[in-house]
């Protein structure tokens, strides 16, 4: 079976990895395990196929991969069996091992890929071993805490994932993570610590685009950013009440997504500025719709959650409903899913305002109401959103990764 060359890579947004990747998984022979050159390399955004032939019938490959449809960005069609190409998923997600026959050590040279993974329509062959210690079905990694929700969304805790494995899975995808932060009024004082600690711990080794929304652009500190990371500043007005920026945040994020972020990033995470990173906060958080469990409520019955309880409000949650109480200091996910969230919350906020209502915790109340009925696909444990006011961490919190700093709220919240 002969691999054919791909004359154009315009449909692939900027692969920069040295990891070998099959981006057109049809008629690619990975079944026989005898040909180490049936692969491609991507360096500097250029795909080079290393063609070879084997005696395997075409059905051996197509039964695993099938045909995809043509990528819209590719203007030149390859010939031969790879002419039909799959849609490039905007937000690829690790799904499973491919059901292919593995190469044996004797049939594979030291330079051949070690492990095969499938990301939507992208088949990634890592030159590093994506392996870790054996997992035992009857030995839970964290028996002291809940690690999966009733709707099968994972809850991320220290000890539930292998950071090296996670990094090696996501780095070949060359993702950009948009990160929004609001620094209005006296909250500009928190920007330096936020950005400097983010550069030490937040998505290290990945492309990050910080979007800073502020009424004082001149107060944004000059912080050295790692290669592939950048910062944009957007002016926003200063409001009469501190609650107003909370009320307007969903609208501003929605508009930013529509005007530029959806064209510039793959994922978006919306974070509070009066926070500091302390430990790794990496791609283990990536998923479709992600929420962080509030550090002050995770041990309480839902009847004690600080939901909006007035039925007249669009943020209303009945006393017998709700799963977890989420903090609005951290939420994120795929661009379009976060856009849907922010758009819905903005509409609900506006409807409440028209009815002379303001939810008890402004946009956080509307965020929680949304997530009661639109379940997050991944939850972050309180490790990922702590509060320094809680003092000494309890036993279940093995590592504090990101926390709200202690401050005089009455002083920094002007016109409170």
Automatic annotation (TrEMBL):
GO biological process, one term: carbohydrate metabolic process
Gene3D superfamilies the record matches: Spore Coat Polysaccharide Biosynthesis Protein SpsA, Chain A
Record has Aminoacyl-tRNA synthetase as a keyword: no
Catalytic residues, chain numbering: 364 (nucleophile)
GO molecular function terms listed in the Swiss-Prot or TrEMBL record: hexosyltransferase activity; metal ion binding
Cofactor needs: Mn(2+)
InterPro entries named in the record: Glyco_trans_6, Nucleotide-diphossugar_trans
Sites where the protein binds an alpha-L-fucosyl-(1->2)-beta-D-galactosyl derivative: 294, 364, 387
Protein residues bound to UDP-N-acetyl-alpha-D-galactosamine: 182-184, 187, 272-274
One cellular component term from this protein's GO annotations in UniProt: Golgi apparatus
UniProt subcellular location: Membrane
Recorded topology in the membrane: Single-pass type II membrane protein
Source organism superkingdom: Eukaryota
Secretion signal, residue range per the UniProt entry: none
UniProtKB keywords: Glycosyltransferase, Manganese, Membrane, Metal-binding, Signal-anchor, Transferase, Transmembrane, Transmembrane helix
Binding-site residues, Mn(2+): 272, 274
The keyword Transferase appears for this protein: yes
Free-text comment on the cofactor: Binds 1 Mn(2+) ion per subunit.
Family membership: Belongs to the glycosyltransferase 6 family.
Protein name: Globoside alpha-1,3-N-acetylgalactosaminyltransferase 1-like
Annotated organism of origin: Synaphobranchus kaupii
Taxonomic placement: Eukaryota, Metazoa, Chordata, Craniata, Vertebrata
């Amino acid at each position: 079976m002969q691999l054919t060359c791909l004359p154009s890579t315009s449909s692939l947004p900027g692969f920069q990895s040295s990891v070998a990747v099959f981006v057109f998984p049809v008629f690619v022979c990975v079944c026989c395990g005898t040909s180490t050159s049936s692969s491609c390399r991507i360096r500097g955004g250029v795909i080079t196929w290393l063609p070879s032939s084997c005696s395997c019938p075409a059905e051996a490959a197509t039964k695993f991969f099938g045909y995809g449809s043509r990528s819209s960005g590719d203007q030149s069609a390859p010939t031969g069996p790879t002419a039909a190409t799959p849609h490039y998923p905007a937000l690829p997600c690790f799904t499973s091992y491919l059901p292919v026959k593995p190469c044996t050590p004797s049939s594979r040279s030291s330079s051949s890929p070690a492990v095969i993974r499938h990301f939507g329509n992208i088949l990634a062959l890592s030159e590093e071993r994506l392996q870790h210690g054996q997992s035992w079905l009857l030995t839970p990694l964290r028996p002291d805490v809940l690690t999966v929700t009733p709707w099968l969304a994972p809850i991320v805790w220290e000890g539930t994932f292998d950071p090296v494995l996670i990094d090696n899975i996501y780095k070949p995808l060359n993702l950009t993570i948009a990160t929004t932060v609001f620094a209005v009024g006296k909250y500009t004082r928190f920007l330096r610590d936020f950005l400097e600690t983010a550069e030490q711990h937040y998505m290290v080794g990945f492309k990050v685009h910080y979007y800073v929304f502020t009424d004082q652009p001149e107060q944004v500190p000059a912080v050295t950013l790692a290669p592939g990371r950048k910062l944009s500043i957007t002016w926003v007005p200063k409001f009469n009440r501190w609650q107003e920026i909370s009320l307007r945040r969903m609208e501003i994020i929605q508009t930013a997504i529509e005007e530029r972020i959806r064209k510039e990033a793959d994922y978006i995470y919306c974070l509070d500025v009066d926070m500091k990173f302390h430990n790794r906060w990496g791609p283990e958080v990536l998923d479709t719709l992600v929420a962080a469990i509030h550090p002050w409520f995770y041990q309480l019955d839902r009847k004690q959650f600080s939901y909006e309880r007035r039925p007249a409000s669009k943020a209303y949650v009945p006393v017998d409903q709700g799963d977890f109480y989420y903090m609005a200091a951290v939420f994120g996910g795929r661009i379009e899913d976060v856009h849907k969230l922010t758009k819905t919350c903005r509409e609900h906020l506006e409807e409440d305002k028209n009815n002379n209502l303001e939810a008890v915790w402004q946009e956080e109340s509307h965020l929680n109401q949304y997530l009661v009925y639109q379940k997050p696909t991944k939850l972050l444990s309180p490790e990922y959103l702590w509060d320094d006011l809680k003092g000494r961490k309890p036993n279940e919190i093995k590592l504090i990764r990101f926390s709200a700093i202690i401050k005089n709220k009455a002083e920094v919240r002007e016109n409170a």
